[in-house]
Write a structure and sequence with these properties.
610 residues; alpha+beta; seven-stranded antiparallel β-sheet; five-stranded mixed β-sheet; 46% helix; rod-shaped; disordered C terminus
């Protein structure tokens, strides 16, 4: 049994505990996994808004090109250049200031001293040197060919010669490419927001993917036909679209974009992505100062610089971000905690099921081993039980057959012994056969209305000579009136015989037995047959085990007690088949009391006998 238990622990229980430990360790990562999944979901929302914003700006840029071509359709480009500021603002609402500059560095529009246009004069004062390629400034720019970052090392000539700008490295020159690579490595700009879910550097600072480039306007134009240029003046973003018409590639038509109007066109972008996750997140569009220009649903966010995730829009709107905020940040933690608790309970339940299942298996295995051992003992006991009466029968029958015993009293005594041993052998064989039939559910009973009192009196009378011959004192306390039950009289008689035989085997030195029959009315009408002795009694804790098959409260071989261990088992099974039971009670003053209870038949006291 110990080996089997050890094998079970090593093969099943220990691996289960190891797996449970690994599962519990994995629970620590559940919150990270859940946050990562949520991060990917919400990052997709932020990316979508940023992408749509970039696409909308690109569409505005194409619209600007169409507006320029429409203005040049009926006039020469040089004729349109002088009045371009007024014309573009009239036809295109996003334009705040329209400008035209030649690649040689001449500004045609707007006029520096134009009346009533302080915006135009301010634009000329702030951008003339840059547009004329006489000054390198930090800008963010892109074109259909892609964004190009520039270095101040590219150009040293513009400060001494206004007309030599054509000698500068262009966007396609080797010197330009070398400078771009150097400047891109050195330039790092911190983002205006600090997303909670982001890949950060060692110093925990998140850097922008959009870096400024220092260059002249002509360097930015290069061979491209259109693009955007963004620069900061007095900490204010200036976004410019520019376009070169095939009608006159030497002229660059541009417009300073009205940011409030552009912002209005961007506000509708947050609606579509926020609708699908309504109640969970707030999608916002942040400007370069991390202030919301649009948000849905609007919330009183205390710190707009700490979104859950965020995505930069790009070079057209540098440091603008599409950001996602959790409306209920604690919900994610609660979801992770609930998931962790659920998985933890599931793991605990599985481990408990494995433990309980293993315990039940061990108990069943222990029971089977005990039953196997009891069956082995049963075979030994039955062999001994069969051998003893057979030896006695053979010995006394040989003495009588050889005529060695001439005394009549001895002959009668030997015949009585042979008869008793034959009855004992018959009971033993009947018990084994009945037990086999009961185990296979083949035992049949002839249920009729019978007088239990008569059956008990007859059985006691038959068994009395055997008990008295063994030195027993048998007392009976039986009522005078018959007591009827519905049952098989032979089977009920066998119960009484088994109980008397049990009293005989376990009586010890005080060979006393008593049989009582009583009719009880509480709680239901039933009849009790009590068989009492002054024997060894039943050890504490074995009161129910003695009714198990093959179980012996006292070792039969070492104590010399005869029997197969089936008598009480059969008695209880027969009684329960009749709707009753056999129970054990300790007898006051020492000994045992076995009680047969059977339901009384109606009119059980009637004067009739079967």
């Amino acid at each position: 049994m110990k080996k089997v238990a050890l094998v079970f622990v090593l093969a099943v229980f220990v691996p289960s505990l190891v797996l449970a430990w690994l599962a519990v360790r994995s629970l620590r990562d559940q919150q990270f996994v859940l946050e990562r999944q949520q991060s990917l979901l919400y990052q997709g929302v932020a990316d979508s808004v940023a992408r749509e914003a970039a696409n909308l700006i690109a569409e505005h840029q194409r619209e600007f090109a169409r507006q320029v071509e429409a203005l040049l359709a009926n006039d020469k480009p040089i004729d349109v250049a002088n009045s371009f500021d007024d014309r573009i603002r009239e036809h295109w609402l996003l334009a705040d200031v329209g400008f035209v500059v030649s690649l040689e560095g001449q500004v045609y529009s707007p006029l520096l001293f134009e009346r009533g246009r302080p915006q135009a004069r301010q634009f000329r004062l702030e951008n003339d040197r840059f547009l004329c390629s006489r000054e390198s400034v930090q800008v963010y720019w892109n074109s259909p060919k892609g964004p190009i970052n520039l270095s101040p090392a590219d150009d040293k000539k513009s400060e001494t010669d206004e007309g030599s700008s054509a000698q500068s490295p262009t966007a396609n020159s080797p010197a330009f490419s070398s400078a771009v690579g150097k400047y891109s490595k050195e330039q790092k700009v911190a983002r205006n927001v600090e997303p909670q879910q982001t890949q950060q550097t060692v110093d925990k600072q998140a850097y922008s993917k959009v870096a400024p480039s220092e260059a002249e306007f002509r360097q930015l134009v290069g061979d491209s036909t259109e693009g955007t240029v963004a620069r900061f003046l007095q900490n204010k973003l200036n976004l410019m679209f520019w376009y070169r018409s095939p009608r006159d590639p030497q002229l660059v038509f541009g417009a300073l974009i009205n940011l409030p109007r552009l912002t209005e066109s961007l506000q509708n972008l947050v609606k579509g992505d926020a609708e699908s996750l309504r109640g969970e997140i707030c999608v916002a569009l942040l400007d370069d100062n991390a202030r919301p220009v649009a948000a849905l649903p609007w919330k009183n966010q205390g710190n707009w610089k700490r979104p859950f995730v965020a995505t930069e829009i790009g070079e057209a709107l540098p440091h603008w971000e599409s950001a996602v905020y959790l409306l209920n940040p604690a919900k994610l933690s609660r979801s992770a905690a609930a998931l962790k608790l659920t998985l933890g309970l599931l793991i605990a339940l599985l481990v408990l099921a494995i433990g309980v299942g293993g315990w039940l298996i061990v108990l069943d295995l222990k029971r089977q081993l005990t039953l196997a051992r009891q069956k082995t003992d049963f075979v030994s006991n039955v062999s001994h039980e069969l051998k003893t009466p057979l030896t006695s029968i053979r010995m006394f029958s040989e003495l009588l057959a050889d005529g060695r015993v001439t005394d009549k009293e001895k002959q009668r005594s030997y015949f009585n012994i042979i008869t008793a041993e034959t009855a004992r052998l018959t009971r033993l064989i009947n018990n084994v056969l009945d037990f086999s039939r009961l185990e296979r559910s083949e035992k049949k009973y002839n249920i009729t209305k019978c007088d239990l009192l008569y059956a008990v009196r007859e059985t006691v009378g038959t068994y009395r000579p055997h008990l008295e011959a063994g030195g027993f004192k048998l007392e009976c306390d039986l009522p005078a009136s018959p007591l009827f039950v519905n049952g098989d009289r032979d089977a009920l008689a066998q119960i009484v015989v088994n109980l008397l035989s049990n009293a005989e085997k376990y009586s010890g030195e005080r060979k006393e037995a008593r049989v009582e029959v009583r009719q009880q009315s509480q709680p239901l009408a039933h009849i009790e047959v009590r068989v009492l002795d002054r024997g060894l009694g039943v050890p504490k804790g074995c009161e129910e085990k003695i009714f198990e098959q093959f179980y012996r409260a006292h070792d039969s071989l070492s104590s010399g007690i005869q029997g197969s261990g089936l008598g009480l088992t059969l008695a209880r099974q027969i009684a329960r088949a009749h709707g009753g039971d056999v129970t054990y009670e300790p007898r006051q003053g020492g000994g045992s009391c076995f009680v047969l209870r059977l339901p009384a038949s109606p009119n059980s006291t009637a004067n009739e006998r079967e």
